[in-house]
């Protein structure tokens, strides 16, 4: 359930740009994800109570664009200090969360509103095409956004500003296209604060049942019937319909707790693996949720929300956990444990100067290193690649070839004069810590399983939620569906915070 193209690089942005640790990055990522799925409640209230679905989509899309612009500005190194970057990033993420959260329950419901009740099959096809379109866009963003981040350099580092800015521009274009079709849409007026009425009806039923808990009062067919003294039968019947569907949602948060970790823990796992496919290097944030798998599954499966489907998806959840744990444990066994091992898919290099002069201005990893004759420099981290460093030796500029510095490897480059060529300088490179040897392709099975599970839930879940909801509560039930994702992220948030507290307690 993709909610923002820029989210594909969000964890790496926290880790490498804001220099947060893995637990804090995971915590903020899932706090943001959870907020994106809690805010649909407010979007549903706005849509059903005051603005209507069309106006809610329009105004909150503007807020969404503003959020991306603010986040993009916060990713420009020359704009203020670290505190300013953090502040702008948080403000931008909050704006995006309320923007995308407000839009979410309205877009699918607004699309469903365009079909008459007798066009059930056409409406079901719409939800499949709607979901297919989301995944097609997500497929593009999954591959393009990391390219904008990693392959395009701006301000001497990864271009996070561009990676966040392009989605803002594209969303603005999409908003214009949406508004241009305004005259062709069916627009239903808001029905009032339905969500508030639902909560009040449920609250009164519970309170009234508690007040009449003695055996002298006759039982009623349904616990919501205890609200008949105050609320009309039509509302109570509709609330019954909603609560029956919400009861089916109870197991879903555990699924989403696993699913959304692809943007945090699984991406971090990918940074510690070998991502070289015979010369083609994949970015760690390009691995998360490979949409081509979901597109293929979407095109071949049409399942219904049943107990059997829930059982299949529960089995898939267990398999995903097992596969992910096997990959992580095997990877850890194959990685050399060393304090000097660079994290996040980077390489590290230090220099030993065996020349009789100081070597200065060694350009490596965006930093200028200087090594006095006979000394050893500190490790400098840099991106994996075939590296040639440029340095100044005794007033002369030299280019020294180091070769491939691979993922997670730590290297020592010994600077010396070649004996057979007199004054020519060379570097003898020694691998201090082994590079990552466990290949990133081992993540594909876990992604395939999680994609299959999500397709089983999401396509039919969206259509099922819409079809089962009363006309006045379409957005409310869509918001309830999205809330299951929010609670899933809360589960991950609690686990990440527990890990942080455990680290604090450890000596």
UniProtKB/TrEMBL annotation:
<keyword id="KW-0653">Protein transport</keyword>
<comment type="similarity">
    <text>Belongs to the major facilitator superfamily. Proton-dependent oligopeptide transporter (POT/PTR) (TC 2.A.17) family.</text>
</comment>
<dbReference type="InterPro" id="IPR000109">
    <property type="entry name" value="POT_fam"/>
</dbReference>
<keyword id="KW-0813">Transport</keyword>
<feature type="transmembrane region" description="Helical">
    <location>
        <begin position="58"/>
        <end position="80"/>
    </location>
</feature>
<dbReference type="GO" id="GO:0016020">
    <property type="term" value="C:membrane"/>
</dbReference>
<keyword id="KW-0472">Membrane</keyword>
<dbReference type="Pfam" id="PF00854">
    <property type="entry name" value="PTR2"/>
</dbReference>
<feature type="transmembrane region" description="Helical">
    <location>
        <begin position="160"/>
        <end position="181"/>
    </location>
</feature>
<dbReference type="GO" id="GO:0006857">
    <property type="term" value="P:oligopeptide transport"/>
</dbReference>
<keyword id="KW-0571">Peptide transport</keyword>
<dbReference type="GO" id="GO:0015031">
    <property type="term" value="P:protein transport"/>
</dbReference>
<feature type="transmembrane region" description="Helical">
    <location>
        <begin position="128"/>
        <end position="148"/>
    </location>
</feature>
<keyword id="KW-0812">Transmembrane</keyword>
<protein>
    <recommendedName>
        <fullName>Solute carrier family 15 member 2</fullName>
    </recommendedName>
</protein>
<keyword id="KW-1133">Transmembrane helix</keyword>
<dbReference type="GO" id="GO:0015293">
    <property type="term" value="F:symporter activity"/>
</dbReference>
<feature type="transmembrane region" description="Helical">
    <location>
        <begin position="479"/>
        <end position="499"/>
    </location>
</feature>
<dbReference type="InterPro" id="IPR036259">
    <property type="entry name" value="MFS_trans_sf"/>
</dbReference>
<dbReference type="InterPro" id="IPR018456">
    <property type="entry name" value="PTR2_symporter_CS"/>
</dbReference>
<feature type="transmembrane region" description="Helical">
    <location>
        <begin position="28"/>
        <end position="51"/>
    </location>
</feature>
<keyword id="KW-0769">Symport</keyword>
<feature type="transmembrane region" description="Helical">
    <location>
        <begin position="86"/>
        <end position="107"/>
    </location>
</feature>
